Structure formats: C-alpha cells, structure tokens
Amino acid sequence: MIIVAAGALALSGCEKAAEGQVAAVVNGEEITLQEINATLAQANTPEGVDKKVLQQRALQQIVDRRLLAQAARESGIDQDPAYLIRERQLSEALLVQMYAQKAGTTLKVPDQAAIDNYTEKHPFAFANRTVYAVDQLVFPAPENLEDLKALESAQTLDQVGATLTEMGIPFQSKSAQMDSAQVPPAMMAQIVSLAPGEPFVIPTGTTVTASVIKAQQKVPFNADQSGPVAVKAIRNEEMAEIMKKRLGDAKAKAEITYQAGFEPPKDSGDAPSPAVTEAIDDAPAETVDAPTG
Q: Strand (E) positions, the chain?
C-alpha cells in the first residue's frame, strides 16, 4: 500500500494544472495566456467586447485545434512525408518572416522630405496611380526565356495566342485588374509607352502573362493616404535591401552543391529573390504614421 500510494502521489505531482499563466491543459499539453493573446493579436477584434469573453472564445478555438492536431498525430499524419515537407516549408517561412520583421525594427521613420521625394519619384504609385482592366493570356514559362522573342512581333493579344499555338504552348485566357502602384516604376513606364491595344509580356517565375489594356481609371492617393503609403513603401524597400544583403552574406559562407540539371539558371540576373519578397510581404507591418507638422 505504501508503494502504491507513493506511486500515486508521484503521478499526481506530474500532472499539469490550469493555473497562473496556463489557461488550459489538453491531454497534458498546456495552453498559455501568451498563446491566447497572440491569437487575439492576429484577429480583427471588435471594439467594446469584453476582453475576458474574447479570451474565452480564443481559448476554445485553440483547444479545438489542439484536439484535432492530437487526433491527427494519433492517425500518423505527422509521419507522412508530405506533412514533413509542408511542416518544414511553413517553419522556414515563419523564421524568415520574423527575421525580416526584426530587421524592420532597426529602421528609422522617414521624414517628410524623404516622403515627398519618394512620391515625386514614383508618380505611378501616387499622383498618377491608375487601375487598368486587362485581358490576359497566361502560359507556362519556356525553359529558355529567349523563346519569348517570338512574341515581339505580335501587335494584338490574338496574335500572341496564335504564336503560342504555333509553338505548342498551352495558355489560358482571363480578365484581371492591374494597379500601377503595384508595378515596378521602370516596367510601368514601358507599359504606358505602348500603342493602344499593344500587348506586353511579363515573366513571373514559372509562368508568363501576356496582357493588353482594355480600360483604365485614375485613382490617385489623396494627401492623407499618400503619407502612410509612402512610409510603408520606403520601409519595405529598406527591409528588402537588408534581407538581400543578409542572403548574399549567407550564400557567401554557405556550401551548396547541386545535382546536375538543378543549378541556378544563368539568366537569373539581379532580380530579387522570391524568398526575400515573400518575407517582406508577409512580415506584419508595424503601425507607423507619417510625420506631421
């Protein structure tokens, strides 16, 4: 009896309790107040709602997710190769995102002179901002981008489609909108110089998009909007430069070997790495107001 009682006492001492910073324990796994608050910070919580009620709702959401995750592990999902690959992708993406976010904390808030200079140098993003309605043909990028030169003589989107058909390249037609504020300035300058109805071709990773402008509407930012937008754009560009340098430093020190046929393309040029742009786009932006006065 003494041994059994001691054993029972030892077991009860190992049990985790829902107290202090621990809001709940789900099959031995703790859920902390910090985890609840992080969930609330990521959500758009309505004003005027009791904080305790919001915490209770967030906690129940976490509890339900934890239970389903535990059930998934019991079924062996966490040993599935597809899961392991996805887990690594998400983990690396989060690490890089937070690495970029931390870099952003070292940046100074641009002053009014810097903001004015930026808006003047980026008219397509501010004073001349325009939203275009475009018709597009989307197709897979050829192994050799030089093959796209066959499209240079096309004067209409129909001619682009005919050339792609001759080349044996499948494509899909669609309509879309293009915001000039989201297009690199040099590229936007080339696009607006085209004759009406003349197509333009933009390679983007594994796909290529041929577009033609069908309609347009000017939607410039007003004075109240342009300041915060410019501040965010300036900070994003500075963060991108920091991350680009860090990536370059990491590559310089790294030992990388490629299987034959998987080497980086020779025509990759100085284009920003998608890993950098994704990190900047996904990093939560701190609320930074434009200078006033």
A: 22-26, 29-32, 130-140, 172-179, 200-204, 207-218
Q: Please check the confidence at residue 8 and state whether its pLDDT lies above 80.
A: no
Distance CA 198, CA 216 (A): 15
What is the rounded radius of gyration, in angstroms, for the C-alpha atoms of the chain?
27
The dihedral built from the CA positions of residue 71, 75, 79 and 84, taken in this order, carries a sign that is negative
pTM reported for the whole predicted model: 0.70
pLDDT in tens, 236-253: 999 999 999 999 999 999
188-219, pLDDT tens digit by residue? 999 999 999 999 999 887 899 999 999 999 99
- The answer to whether the CB of 59 falls within 8 A of the CB of 67 is no
Q: How far apart are CA 225 and CA 232, in angstroms?
A: 11
Question: Alpha-carbon dihedral of residues 229, 235, 241, 243, nearest 10 degrees?
Answer: -110
Residues in Cβ contact with 173 at an 8 Å cutoff, skipping those fewer than 6 apart: 135, 136, 137, 161
Distances (CA, A) of 161 to 164, 171, 175, 205, 213: 5, 8, 15, 20, 16
- In angstroms, the CA 222 to CA 216 distance is 18
Beta bridge partners of 25: 30
For residue 104, what are its two tokens?
Answer: 């952003």
What are phi and psi for residue 122, nearest 5 degrees? -130, 65
pLDDT at 17 over 90: no
Could you tell me which residues come within 8 angstroms of residue 166 by beta carbon, excluding any fewer than 6 positions away? none
Per-residue pLDDT of 126-149, as tens digits, reads 999 999 999 999 999 888 888 899
| Rounded alpha-carbon distances, angstroms, from residue 232 to 43, 107, 113, 219 | 21, 11, 15, 19
Side chain identity, residue 121: K
